[in-house]
Amino acid sequence: MIRNTATGYGYVAIAFHWTMALLILGMLAVGLYMTSLPQTDPLTFRLYQLHKSFGFVVLSLVVLRLGWRLINPAPKLPEGMKPWERLAAHLGHTGLYALLFLMPATGWLMVSASPWNIPTVVFNVLNIPHLPIPEALGTKEQAEGVFKTAHFYLAWFMIALVAVHVAAALKHHFINRDATLRRMVSTVPARDGG
Ligand code: HEM
Ligand code: HEM
């Protein structure tokens, strides 16, 4: 059961979902923690480098995941959901996909614009070039500020959206008692039609 069916997710979509969910929770936590440390703490620099490395893992995975998603439509939403709930589910998932891409993108642009010019070497092995920054954004400090602000607000937006997403998953499971959460955990619903 590699692929999704009309009633459930296959192994690949499930593996992508939970690997990336763990990575995102870790990235949000480390991002907030490292920015609360003093700049002179040696741990700060190490955590920043780790945050950047895992950020590129997220970016690579989301590209692969979106590719898989394009050739593997998601299962149908459960019967009985109201039209606004269906719309909210689609908008929420689209928003999460957009953030999975926008968070690493704004991070990459931020470090590319930074006057510190610190190289990004993923896990000390793979050198990532800096992106070109449009001159219209002003000095390096100003451009870095734009992307830093975007990264910050998008992070908080992501925290809020993930909280709503988790609440919705739990409501489906414990209140509606449908297969929504089960089908993101197991491939049985994909196999036997829910
Ligand atoms: C899924 C991907 C990512 C998530 C969820 C994430 C999350 C966060 C969060 C929550 C913060 C703290 C925000 C603040 O208080 O300012 C942060 C800061 C930061 N992130 Fe990310 N990040 C991601 C990817 C990246 C990438 C790919 C890079 C760079 C290549 C990056 C570079 C940074 C830097 C340099 C800061 C510190 C900003 C400052 O000093 O104010 N992030 N990130
Ligand atoms: C922490 C970061 C998370 C992110 C970024 C995330 C992202 C996503 C995305 C993009 C989808 C849509 C998948 C698709 O149809 O292609 C999805 C589905 C789903 N997620 Fe998450 N998720 C996260 C955490 C969680 C957690 C903690 C739970 C459980 C409590 C959860 C439960 C679900 C369920 C049940 C579905 C399937 C919904 C359906 O069948 O229509 N997610 N998630």
CATH superfamily: Transmembrane di-heme cytochromes, Chain C
Model regions low in confidence, pLDDT < 50 over at least 5 residues? none
Question: Per CATH, what is the topology?
Answer: Fumarate Reductase Cytochrome B subunit
- CATH class, named Mainly Alpha
Listing every helix as H and every strand as E from the N terminus to the C terminus, the arrangement reads HHHEEHH
Q: Report strand order across the widest sheet.
A: 1-2
Mean pLDDT: 96
Distance between the termini: 14 Å
* Percent in helix: 55-70%
Major sheet attributes = 2 strands, antiparallel
Number of domains: 1
Do you know the CATH architecture?
Up-down Bundle
| Ligands bound to this protein structure | protoporphyrin IX containing FE
Number of helices: 5
Number of strands: 2
What integer value in Å does the Rg equal? 19 Å
Structural class determined from secondary elements: mainly alpha
Estimate the global geometry from the Cα principal axes: elongated
Which range does the strand content fall in?
under 5%
Question: Could you please describe the fold and organization of this structure?
Answer:
The chain is mostly helical and 194 residues long. It has one domain (11-192): Fumarate Reductase Cytochrome B subunit. 65% of the residues lie in helices and 3% in strands. The protein has helices at 11-34, 42-70, 83-113, 140-176, 188-192; strands at 120-122, 126-128. Strands 1-2 form a two-stranded antiparallel sheet. Helix 2 (42-70) crosses helix 3 (83-113). The radius of gyration is 19 Å and the shape is elongated. It binds protoporphyrin IX containing FE (2 copies). One protoporphyrin IX containing FE is lined by residues 17, 20-21, 24-25, 69, 74-75, 77, 89, 93, 96-97, 100, 162, 165-166, 169, 180-181, 183-184. One protoporphyrin IX containing FE (HEM) binds next to helix 1, helix 3 and helix 4.
